Amino acid sequence: MSQQPLSKALLFTILLSVVTLLVAVRSLFSDPLDQVLARIRAYEQQYPYEKVYVHTDRTTYLPGETIWMKSYLFYGASRGADSSSGAVLVDLVSPNGQKIRLDTRFQTKGGYGEGYLPLPDSMETGRYTLRAYTGWMRNFSEDWYFTKAIDIVRANDPKGATTAGNGSSIEARPDVQFLPEGGQLVAGLTSRVAFKAVSPAGVGVDVSGFVLDSRKDTIVGFQSQHLGMGTFPLIPEAGQTYQAFVKIPGTTGYTSYTMPAPQPAGYLVQVDNLSNKDNIRVFVSNSMPPVAATPESGSAAAMLTVLAQVNGQPILALRGPASRKQFVVQIPRAKCPEGIVQITLLDPAGKPVSERLVYSAQDELINLAVTPATPVAGPRQRVDLTVTATNAAGKPVMADLSLAVTDLAQQPKRKPFAASLPSYLLLTSDLTGYVEQPGYYFDQTNKDRLANLDLLLMTQGWRRITWDKVLVDSLPPTRYPFDPGLTVSGTVYRGTSKNPAPGIPLTIMVHRKDSTQDLYSLSADEKGRFFLSNANLIDTATVFVQAQKTNGSRNFTITIDKLVTPQIRVVRPPLVPSDIAYAELAEFLKRQSEYAAIEAQIRRNREVQLQTVVVKAKRVDPYATQRGIFSNADVSLKVDEMNSAGALTIFDILRSRVAGVQVSGGGLEPTVQIRGAANFSGVIEPMFMIDGMAVDKSAISSIMPSDVAYIDVIKGASAALLGSRGAGGGINVIMKRGGETNDYVNKVVPGVRVEKMVGFAPKRTFYAPRYDKPTPEEKVRPDYRATLLWAPRIQTDAAGKATVSFYTSDAKTSLHLVLEGATVSGQPGHAEATMKVE
To answer: What CATH homologous superfamily does 175-258 map to?
Structure first.
């Protein structure tokens, strides 16, 4: 059914009163419109926004499996691939929406990133929410974060996922909202009222009904057109109230709902986005008393303004006299890029008084296709795929794509018109709440998709531009900067006070698990703050920060900022009884259980029954990670109460107690020399380290002897591993470890701070066997992979083509191929295909 048209009488009246409107932009800054445009520009400059989308290989997993992901990052105003932020943060939120169960970080380059999230074997069944965002996006509402439903099903508890729903009874009263077009009902003005009926489970319900006024007269009947949404005309009368009576399928009788009360006077906009192929027509009505012209208005007569924006960018402003009770303006479609158009009516003072969202369809999506060389393949056979990308005109385009190939028998039946990159980037990322079947509006085989999309935008809230935040005299500062990677930040204070220490020189070392390290020098700013942008943090890294003035003073306290986790506020997709077809999951669970049993049998077959033996092994060194590559020091002194008695510094312990180490001079920083080191031309002091990380000698002198476990001396051939800085050998101070987590003893040392920080997930390659040259294990190992191929970085060439291949598994089944991605300029695309394995 198509969109409810304007009544013929109203259309005739409005068309008779069409006036020639002025294209705004007046030169006088006193014009209210100029002030509105200036504030929009200021808001966009201070708060540019990003959008994140994450493609996953599947949406349903077993505990112990891995979620494979690719992130797409876009600049909101232009939709181009965004390289401002170099990190995408990903959380997996528990089914009850109250706890982050897992998290990871992707390193992005040019707007694209890839990563994974291993699921522990202990994960319980339920519907989880995967959410993704950047550090910059933490300045704004969590409603802007990308979210996606992820179902985890245990083989012994498949139906436990129903606990992930909202807990409402399906027989409970549905929610029916009545939403006047433009935002309000005005007495005496013809309006269109949109409505939306949603079940307690969160999905649309087809309804019918009628409206009564306070005299109990029937005003109009109505019936939903698409997913519980529809419209009907209404001319409200002053002093009347209106009640809607709704018939719910499967129930008897009608349920009553109170409709919004009409305003005695006001403004209205109605939009025709369907009948004219060249223009979007905006009908403006008002019943306000005449407004006198003022010098401040910068106009001979008071004017109403129709302002159109796309992606937060003003594209057109058209005006008409406020004295006209009805007029129409036309917005050329050619001026509106693909996406949601926000149409706002401004009163003569520049205040927003009515608003409507419409969609501009401009054929800016790219056409993607993934074609197997043969539609049918055999088990363990190579399949070659050709990927093509073209624009709406059929010309090839270069795009960055991701492709997943999965076994259809090992996934629940895919819900119709599921979310995709185009539906997210162009539609749902700019709307609040849950959008059901978003892919429907981008499938051109649906003839009524644009009419029903117009319905959706009459009933779904907007959020990208909220006028109460834009039309202010001053904008609050942002808390988080754009981060090209992961930032190490903190504050330096004087002594133990809370007084910042500005301009203090800092040395920062990042030490990674693979024993590689980076050294940086910088200074605190005027507020004592320091920022190390784009720190190369991989996995869990140890960060060492040292503050020292040029005169050697180290009387400072250093704090390192923690990565602030945003509030957990997610819009979880609804879960209705038929949402997950557990009967169709039976093959998946059965196959995976058999697969696990065969794997266990293979392991048992490899076992060898041994005679009684005595196993000899070296005792594990609890300080091995702190010693790193210097696990066998030339000299290692264990610090105890005897040799540290009376010692004020580490140097006091070294003096006369460690063979080959000469300590001369007094004070906190005496001269240290290792005999036998390459220091024939004079004293070359050793390289000083704390737990394998290089530090200044002053940092060593600040350590309490009671906090030290060992002092290791490195010289000779071992010192060559230190490079040029180890010409004088090395001294590695091993700190004591304690507590159940074996963390470093975290005592405050003046001028020094050491902390562990979680960085980017280390790179990991998706495993896919190659049966042209199988390994001995692959020859006997059964193969029932649920995901057969995950290719996150497919790039089409100038001819718009790319090729990729994979090997099928042992299963005779149907395969599902999902391809999506975008061009650098932000034109998205999505394609799906299937093939048989027999």
So the answer is: Immunoglobulins (2.60.40.10)
